[in-house]
Amino acid sequence: MPVESLHAYLGHLREQAAGRASSGGTSLVEARSEQIKTEREISQLKLLKMRGEVLTLDEVSASWSGFASAVRAAVMTIPSKLRSTIPHLTAHDSETAKRVCRDILQDLSEEVKASVIGGSEKSIRGK
């Protein structure tokens, strides 16, 4: 065994024993620093959650589901409001308006699904 490699090996063992290097060659100081940084980020997120400044995925999902239901209900009242506002509309006109509203909601739903599942915002923005 060459003397240089023996000195390098012994130096490496000294660094490990002193707590400055890990067996993988990365600095234990760097590894500990990264761990502290990660723990700090987790603590900050927990604090923001307790203050009500961030939402969980479940909370966001529930909120958007409620919003989508409200929009659907509002859009589906359009045909009856049209018929009460414009009395000369026929039952056929009302059914046509209902179909158009359902089609619009269905198209929007498909665009949102494609965007969320496919990861593309392009279809929502129409670009």
How would you describe this structure to a colleague?
- It is a single chain.
- The chain has 127 residues and is mostly helical.
- Helices cover 79% and strands 0% of the residues.
- It has six helices and no strands.
- The protein has helices at residues 3-18, 28-51, 57-76, 78-85, 91-118, 122-125.
- The longest helix has 28 residues, at 91-118.
- It is rod-shaped and about 100 Å long.
Short description:
The chain has 127 residues and is mostly helical. Helix content is 79%, strand content 0%.
- Average pLDDT confidence is 83
> Proportion of β residues?
under 5%
**What profile does the largest beta sheet have?**
none
Shape label: rod-shaped
Approximately how much helix is present in the residues? over 70%
Count of discrete alpha- or pi-helical segments spanning 4 or more residues: 6
How many angstroms separate the termini? 67 Å
The total beta strand count reads 0
Task: Specify Rg, calculated over alpha carbons.
Answer: 31 Å
Low-confidence stretches: 120-127
Could you give the order of the helices and strands?
HHHHHH
Structural class: mainly alpha
